[in-house]
Amino acid sequence: MFDIKDLYQEVIVDHNRSPRNFGKLEDADRTLEGYNPLCGDKLTLYIKTDGDKINDIAFDGSGCAISVASASLMTDAMKGKTLQEAESLFNHFHSLVTTDDDVDMEQLGKLAALAGVKAYPARVKCASLCWHTMHSVIQGDNTPVHTE
Predict the structure, then answer these.
(1) pTM for this entry
(2) Domains of the chain
(3) Mean pLDDT rounded to a whole number for the chain
(4) Three-state SS for 129?
């Protein structure tokens, strides 16, 4: 019988092995670094906006499988979103990995693959590093993000 957990694991493995939107975005108008000292994950997030819309987004850096997969999934999900929509998605994702609240899994799509990290507090920081970096850059905060 097909198990949804198998699909989730497959999505994470796929996005780790072949991360989407990986590499420096030369014409980005917003850039911010993030670092997870516990795991050693490091990334730089690049965003190109047009008004309040995210036209393009990319990341580079290195990290564990969860960190890379999360950044890949996040960048895929953010393309074409308004900054307000991106902030809303950040809040939904943050709830998914940190609370027991009911979260609309259909709204999250493939991002729901990361729901299992909630059971491993140290892994939550790996999955959320790129998200906190995105949140900060949208808020206009240029201070590098640390998940301590």
Answers:
(1) 0.92
(2) 4-146 (3.90.1010.10)
(3) 91
(4) helix
